[in-house]
Design brief:
Length: 569
């Protein structure tokens, strides 16, 4: 059958027996689609890092969209529109708060980078197509270089006299901002150089001098104030956001919790994990000394060159288990479009286990170029039983299934994507498969419990870091002592936790999101309002949104007729 007819057949199949309103019945969908498209357009155009103009324009955009949203405030809304109205309102207000917080962090760098605005102004004027005065541009570059020299000399005097110095956190933040400013300056210069001979004649020397000065100043900040060492990995510093900013993020996730509440939940889950891992340890003949049992499990790894085949076999095993137990709908194309790829050495410094990369599961395993100690730790950390417990998390029924469905059902809600659903969904399956007896023996149980304890630890170390209660070195020690990590994998994990590429609450999202979904399952499935498979399909069809609103959405669904093949659009 031609591919076009196959696609049409699938469309007709998935459109049958619908009782939920289609997306076209939701008057908020066009608003959200345009909001996402306009936001992408603005982010692409106003892309100068830490620019006041960018911040101002984005704030006015979110304010204007908030006013436009009020057109829906007085309308009678169906249940789907109610979800999208609440999500849009929260999204727009949170983005404005985020801008305010980010501006505060930028302002703190001004004492170290008093010339930043002048560099940004050069590129801003170019983008506005303002005519350039080549001689004045050379004067400006020369003056900025003098400003860089002055602030650096001031800091050196403070170092020599043992005076008050900026913190490592502020120095590192400023150095990273400085590197981006230098990239902006480089781009500005290349837009004129050669194209405008008079510009090159005036500015080539001043530009070269300034670019060198900025690079040297960045190195100064990193090495003298932030603790960088040439030839070594960057130090673990991070940028804690504090309790008030955490509360803003918690509110945006629609969690009725404080940071202390989340820490308490992690501690309670840790108690359960430690009880279960001791039971598994006793089954293996190690008594309550679960760390000895874990050492045994870590030794059960495949030989170099075999990890990709192991992961592929484990992925197929999980798919078969889920289908044999009729737990969730897995469309044929979803089962077809995944593969395994090995991660390179640099990536393994922040991803020592596995990662979902969109149709691909990235897998860590020792490389010939790594030193012997790192190889040994990576082998132990990527043993058969740890890997079995993470493969289904990344692929099916975890992230691959989830991503596939998010592209096809209520896809407009991707704008509101939250890690509490994205990571919580995969963690929920870790819990559910444990309850259903997926582990084959105590070794598998320890593999699953390693990850479950890791999710608890993530909450504790990340929140305490942002609350100023735990340093990166203490985070590493905690992962080693309480979870059983190798020091290499613990260091890699902490480097990612504090690297700034994730939201501050991201590490909390696994366990907390999983617990939220589990509670919702107890209400709707154990409460006989829908079957387990119907529940899973309905969650996936809701879109990657806060679990609170998935619950609200599912409670408005009518119970399907017995034997119905209803799709939860």
């Amino acid at each position: 059958m031609p591919a076009s007819l196959v696609a049409l057949s699938l469309l007709l199949l998935t459109s049958s027996n619908q009782t939920m309103p289609r997306q076209t019945d939701n008057r908020l969908v066009p608003f959200i689609d345009r909001l996402r498209t306009d936001l992408d357009e603005l982010r692409s155009f106003y892309d100068l890092p830490t620019s006041a103009e960018t911040s101002s324009r984005m704030d006015s955009f979110f304010a204007g969209e908030g006013q436009a949203l009020q057109a829906f405030a007085g309308l009678k809304r169906n249940s789907e529109e109610e979800v999208d109205y609440a999500l849009s309102d929260k999204f727009l207000s949170y983005r404005r708060k985020q801008i305010e917080i980010e501006l505060g962090k930028v302002k703190e760098t001004e004492a170290l980078l008093p010339f930043a605005g002048e560099i940004l102004a050069l590129e801003t004027d170019r983008r506005k197509l303002l005519p350039i005065d080549e001689e004045k541009a050379a004067d400006k570059l020369t003056q900025i270089a003098k400003d860089v020299k002055a602030v650096r000399e001031s800091l050196q005097k403070a170092i020599d006299s043992k005076g008050k110095l900026p913190s490592a956190v502020l120095a590192d933040r400023s150095a990273k901002r400085l590197d981006r400013l230098n990239q902006t300056l480089d781009f500005w210069f290349k837009q004129y150089d050669g194209f405008n001979p008079l510009f090159s004649w005036w500015t080539k020397k001043p530009y070269d001098a300034l670019a060198t000065s900025l690079r040297d100043y960045s190195k100064f900040l990193k090495e003298k104030l932030a603790g960088y060492r040439e030839g070594e990995d960057p130090p673990l510093i991070g940028d804690p956001i504090g309790r008030e900013a955490l509360l803003v993020d918690i509110d945006a996730e629609m969690l009725d919790k404080s940071p202390e509440d989340l820490l308490k939940m992690a501690d309670e889950e840790f108690v359960w994990c430690e009880k279960e891992i001791k039971a598994a340890s006793r089954q293996m003949g190690f008594g309550d000394d679960w760390k000895k049992a874990m050492e045994k499990v870590k030794s059960l790894h495949v030989q170099p060159g075999e990890q990709d085949q192991l992961v592929a076999a484990q992925a197929k095993e999980a798919i078969k288990y889920v289908e044999d137990h009729d737990l969730v709908t897995i469309e044929p194309l979803c089962k077809e479009t995944w593969r395994v790829e090995m991660l390179n050495q640099e990536t393994q410094k922040v991803l020592p286990f596995a990662v979902y990369l969109g149709q691909r599961m990235g897998v860590s395993f020792p490389l010939s170029t790594q030193d012997h100690e790192t190889k040994e730790m990576s082998l132990r950390g990527n043993n058969e039983h740890f890997t079995r417990a993470i493969t289904f998390h990344e692929l099916i029924p975890g992230h691959h299934l989830q991503g596939y469905m998010a592209e096809r059902y209520n896809s407009h809600r991707r704008l509101f994507s939250t890690p509490f659903l994205v990571e919580g969904w995969a963690l929920y399956w870790e819990m559910l498969l444990w309850d259903l007896g997926f582990p084959r023996g105590p070794e598998d149980k320890i593999g699953m419990l390693f990850w479950r304890m890791h999710r608890c630890a993530r909450i504790i170390v990340s929140l305490k870091f942002h609350l100023g209660q735990m340093k990166p070195t203490e985070m590493i020690d905690f992962l080693v002592d309480r979870v059983g990590h190798e020091r290499f994998t613990a260091t890699s994990e902490v480097r990612r936790f504090i690297g700034g590429d994730y939201s501050p609450l991201y590490q909390c999202a696994y366990m907390i999101g999983g617990l939220q979904i589990r509670e919702l399952k107890k209400e709707l499935v154990d409460g006989k309002k829908m079957s387990l498979k119907e529940f899973h399909d309905a969650v996936l069809h809701s879109g990657p949104i806060p679990i609170k609103w998935i619950g609200n959405r599912l409670r408005h669904m009518e119970s399907p007729a017995k034997g119905s093949n209803r799709r939860y659009l």
